[in-house]
User: Fold these one by one.
Assistant:
Number 1:
Amino acid sequence: MKVVKVKTNYYLENEETKIKLEPEVVHKYRLYSSSEVANLELVILDNQYYFYYKMALKRLSSMQSEYMLRKYLIEKGISKPVLNQVITELYKLRYLDDYEYALNYKDLKQYQWGPRKIEANLLTNGVNKEIINEVVELIDEEEILDNLLSKELRKIKSSIKSFEQKLIRKYYNKGFTLNIITKVLSRHLANIDYDESIDLEKEYYRLKSRLEVKDLTKNELKYQITQRLLRRGYKLDDIKKIEE
C-alpha cells in the first residue's frame, strides 16, 4: 500500500482499500511520501489505536465506567488487542477510573434516586460490588430525605394520610429505604401546620356534584361520598361535619 495525500489528510491506499491515517501515525512513521510503506501491519495497528483512543476520549466527556466504555468501543468495531491497549493507557493517565466514576455518579444522582437504585444502576454499568458498597456508604440518606420531603410537604393538597402514602410509594420506588422514609416523614408530619378540612370540603362537593347526576337515593349518595373520601384518607368525623 502507498501513502496518498488529499488536501491536508493522508491515506493508505491500494486498488481495493483506502485507510485514512491519523496525524500521530503520519508523524511517527514519517509517512509523507507516496512510496511503499514498510512495517505495514504495525502502521495499521497503530492507526487503529490512535483512532479508537481519540474516540474513547470523546466518549469520556460523559461519565463512563470501564464496562460502558468497553461495550461502546466493541460496538464501534475495535479489536480486542487494540481495546486492551486503549483501556490500559486511559487507566495509566487516570482518564478512566471506576471508583471516581461511581463517586461522581453518586454525587450526581443521590438527590434524584435512593441508594438501592444507585446501587442497581452501578451494577448494571459494570462497577465492582466492593466499589459500589464503599460509595453507597457515603450517602446520608436521612439528610437527603429530610431535604426532599420538607419541600414535598409544602405542596400538600389532600388528606394528610393520602399524601403520606403517596410520598412513601414515590420515594420507595425511587430507591430510598422504607424505614428511613417513614421515620423522616413521621418527624415532619408531627410538626406540620396544615388544615385538611378546606381540601376535604372541596373534595366533598366535587364528589357530590358528580354523583348527584346518578339515580341514587339520599342514603346511597351519602354512602358513596363517604366511602370515597375515606379511601382518600380523610377522617370519618371530619366527613360527618361537612355533611351536617
Number 2:
Amino acid sequence: MKCPFCAELENKVIDSRLGKDGLSIRRRRECLSCGRRFTTYERVEEIQPLVIKRDGRREPFDREKIREGMLKSTQKRPVSVDDIDDFLDNLERHFQETNQKEIPSTEIGEMVIDALKNLDEVAYVRFASVYRQFKDLDDFVRELKELLAKKGEAGARHLLNDLGQHNGPNES
C-alpha cells in the first residue's frame, strides 16, 4: 500500500478493526519511511452486473452515478446521506443475492424512484422529472396528480407547500 504522504510502499499495520458496516476491515497503517499514519479499508470485491442502457449499450454498474443523482434530488431536503448509502448498500446486496449478470437501467431507475418516494416526495418528483424525461409541464402535472391522489387532501396540501417552498423560481 502506497503512503499517501510520501508515496513509499513500505508500511506496517498497527491496528485492524471490523468496519461499521460489518462488510469491511479498517486498518491503521504507519509508513516506515516518513512515520505518518493513514487508514485503509479492505472489502470483498464483488462483481457488479452490467447495466443495459435504454439505447442498448452496456456499461458497468456505477454506485456513485446513482448516488449523485439521488443527492441532487434530495438537495435542501431532510434526507440524510446515510439513508441514501443504506439504499445503495441494499441495492448492491440485491444484485449479489440475485446473481444477475445484466440489469436494465429502467429496473434500477424504478428502484431508485420507489426509494425516493418513501424517503421524500419532493425528491421523488425531482428525480422522476429527470428520469422519466418529462417533455412538458403536462407530464409533470400528471405525475404530481398521481402522487397527490394517493396522499389524500391533507397530505396533498403539505406536499404542495413543500414544493412551493423548495422549488420556487427564486431557488438557487
Number 3:
Amino acid sequence: MTVELAEYLIGLDKYIVQNGEIARTFFMEIQYPMSFRLALSAPDDLDQNLLLDIKESEKKTLKISLHHQDYSTQNGLLRVDFNGRHFNPIDITPTVPEIFRPFAGQWLDGYAGHIHYVVDGYKPLAWAIPLELDDFPVKELNGREDYIRTIDAFFQKINIKTAITFNHQMRIL
C-alpha cells in the first residue's frame, strides 16, 4: 500500500452497500458495545473493495477504520483510535513525514486519541500521531454521547455520501 493509493481511495466518494445495492440512506442502530462492519462502494472506481469497521471494546476504546480489501489482504487506509494504545516504529526512513518523526519509537498512550496513516515503506497504519496535531475535528471522547459526532467526522473525512440516520434521532449527511 502506498500513500498515493491510500489518498486516492480515501478521496473517492463512497456509499454504504446494503443487500448488494448502493444505499443512499442507511439506518445505523447504535448499541453498546458498538460493532459495525460495512461494505462500501466507490461508483467512480468499482474495482475497489472497501470496508468500514467501527468497534468499541469492553474497555471503552473506540476504533473507526477504513480498509481496502483485495482477495488476499485487508490493508488499512486510515484509522482513528480513542483511548487505545499504539507504538510507532523506531526507525525513521526518508518517507516518514516530519509530523510523525517526534513520535518515532514512542507509545501514544498519553493522548486521548490518535490517527493512523499510511507511510510509504511501512506496514499499513504502522504510524500514528495524536489527534491534537491532526485536522480531525474530534480530539477526545467525553463519553458515548460523542460517538455520533465522531462517526460523522470520520464519514466526512473518508467521503461517505450515504445519508445516515441513527437510532438516537440524530442525522448526518
